[in-house]
Write a structure and sequence with these properties.
Oligomer: single chain
Bound molecules: protoporphyrin IX containing FE
Structural class: alpha+beta
Mean pLDDT: 91
Number of helices: 17
CATH architecture: Orthogonal Bundle
Strand order of the largest sheet: 1-2-10-7-3
Largest sheet: 5 strands, mixed
CATH class: Mainly Alpha
Length: about 400
């Protein structure tokens, strides 16, 4: 198969198991390459080139519905979601409004709440010695902590309904008829609009929702309802499959990396760097799109103005120029700035929240269980949506030995 053919196979439904292979292949053979799929787009694979695209937001822009790769299925009509779908200076106004609620310091207040949610979910299956890690834990806690802790919302039935909508919109986007996704998107939009209307009538709660309701952009204009709804939707979905996949990838590593569980039990202070290294090797978000504003040369190829460019974090995180012995899992790797949470203005606003919740997941799992294994004859089941952007874990049956409360 030729290089260009291979890049063409980097398509929206690339089998999840081939994503990593295609990344390595492109990194080595065609670091900047054009795909003819989905109306055409470029893929940038090397670390240095990726960093340049992410930092040079004037040349490589966000904030336009036509940027998405692949284009949304017909009729889906997802709203624009600031800050991810916006450019400076408006983008900066959104970040200034939202950042304080997701700072490390602010999140310290939420740690007990995160722990309550995560430990509560693990409690439900811990004594059984078996669970579907994806369905019983990983797909559940991100929406729950977002609603309960960030949005000050506690209605369990509502929460379950929205969690399922977001799950289906992500994991089933290319599996179900476009009308089905479009209907779920409409239901989600209607729910968020109603939530915003209700919050406008309620006393202030000093949370991120209030920040959006009271916030201003562009020299003092209040946000439109569309902008608020879009910002809430990216807060819901930005941390959903990402945190879920990271959780599953961490447990896969605990199963497969000899001595890792013992090391983390002996030296729990290594948990954060182990999580970082697992996410470097298997970043939950593999790719993100930009649109090229001017004819621009990168990696020896000229990208014409108007073309879409996909930054391939998955490949960049394995670039041997940046990460010596890139394929090796090394808990003690020196700080090497992986692109797991991106870089430049759109760097993940939820990275502190993700890191905190994943640390709590590992701590609580290790408290209640040991000796993690796959159910015999099974592995995790992955699904793809967006070209290689997610190789999301849909299901992951595992077994383990429960640790009785008396021995904890
Ligand atoms: C392991 C978990 C996570 C990973 C790997 C991840 C990854 C990313 C990446 C790669 C971007 C950059 C997108 C771009 O460059 O276009 C991003 C942006 C973003 N993420 Fe996350 N994310 C995670 C968790 C979260 C959480 C928990 C939230 C919600 C609190 C969140 C909300 C967002 C938002 C709103 C943006 C847009 C930021 C902007 O455009 O300024 N993410 N994330």
């Amino acid at each position: 198969m030729s290089i260009e053919d291979y890049a063409e196979h980097f398509n929206p439904l690339i089998p999840p198991d081939e994503v990593r292979y295609s990344e390595r292949y492109m990194l080595a053979q065609c670091p900047v390459v054009h795909s003819d799929r989905d109306g055409g787009f470029w893929i940038v694979n090397r670390y240095e080139d990726s960093l340049r695209v992410l930092q040079d937001w004037k040349t490589f822009t966000s904030g336009n519905l036509g940027v998405r790769v692949p284009h949304d299925p017909p009729g889906l009509n997802r709203p624009l979601m600031p800050p991810i779908d916006s450019n400076p200076p408006v983008h900066r106004h959104f970040r200034e409004m939202m950042n304080p609620y997701l700072s490390r310091q602010r999140l310290e207040q939420h740690e007990p709440g995160f722990r309550r949610v995560i430990a509560g979910l693990i409690d439900q299956f811990a004594a059984n010695g078996t669970c579907d890690l994806a369905r019983d834990l990983a797909h559940r806690f991100p929406a729950q902590i977002t609603f309960v802790e960030l949005f000050s919302m506690a209605d369990e039935a509502e929460l379950t309904k929205i969690r399922e909508w977001v799950r289906r919109l992500n994991y089933m986007k290319h599996k179900v008829a476009p009308e089905v996704s479009a209907k779920i998107q409409r239901d989600l939009d209607a729910w968020v609009y109603a939530f915003v209307a209700t919050r406008r009538t309620e006393p202030r709660k000093d949370d991120i929702i209030d920040a959006l309701l009271q916030g201003t952009v562009e020299g003092g204009r209040p946000l439109t309802d569309e902008e608020i709804v879009g910002a809430i939707e990216i807060l819901i979905s930005g941390g959903f499959s990402t945190s879920a996949d990271a959780t599953c990838n961490i447990v896969i590593r605990l199963i497969e990396e000899p001595g890792l569980e013992a090391l983390l039990r002996e030296q729990p202070e290594l948990i954060p760097q182990a999580i970082e290294e697992i996410m470097r090797l298997d970043p939950p978000v593999n790719t993100r799109p930009r649109k090229c504003a001017f004819d621009t040369e990168i990696g020896g190829r000229v990208i014409p103005a108007g073309d879409r460019v996909l930054v391939n974090y998955g490949a960049a995180n394995h670039d041997p120029e940046q990460f010596p012995d890139a394929e090796t899992f090394d808990v003690f790797r020196e700080a090497s700035k992986p692109l797991t949470f991106s870089a430049g203005p759109h760097r993940c606003i939820g990275s502190n929240m993700a890191r905190l919740s994943l640390r709590v997941v590992v701590e609580e799992l290790l408290k209640q269980a040991t000796d993690f294994r796959f159910v015999e004859g099974k592995r995790e089941e992955r699904v793809s949506f967006s070209p290689g952007a997610w190789r999301a874990v849909d299901s992951m049956p595992i077994t383990f030995t429960p640790i009785p409360p008396t021995s904890r």
